[in-house]
Amino acid sequence: MPDIRHHFGEAFVSVDGSMDRDRMRTHVFANPQAKVLLESIIHPRVHEELERLVRTSHTACVVFDVPLLVESGRWRSRLDTVFVVDCARETQIARVIARNGWPRQQVESVIAQQSPRAVRLASADGVLWNDGIDLPALQALVLGMARRLGL
Length: 151
Hints:
Elements (H helix, E strand, L loop, with lengths): L1 H7 L12 H10 L1 H25 L12 H4 L10 E4 L2 H12 L3 H9 L4 H6 L3 E4 L5 H14 L3
Parallel strand pairs: 1-2
Helix pairs in contact: 2-3
């Protein structure tokens, strides 16, 4: 947070001291240079922490939830297996609207800045289709994939 405060100012810091994610999101999607700066602050720290967690892990499998796996270019080569959780575009839009309360145009703007769906799917070793199914059915898919991996 000190670097975010230094580079972006107090306006991007919430009253609890955390980053004001909504304000930052609006700012970086309107300003590509700000996005690069933010990523240069956050990504090395996330990478360092994940490396520490992997080194100290005593489990058979470590799962990373990597929102920008394809966009970053650094993750795919470091992972043994990549699964993409996918759904129809309209489902994705509806879920973000329901979760974040954003207007549809904002959701579509964010999606437009991500890697195309076809690119994400092409980077995957497996796809979890999370559309039109309930949580127990999704859980069964995840457990099936875990068994196929010997977990």
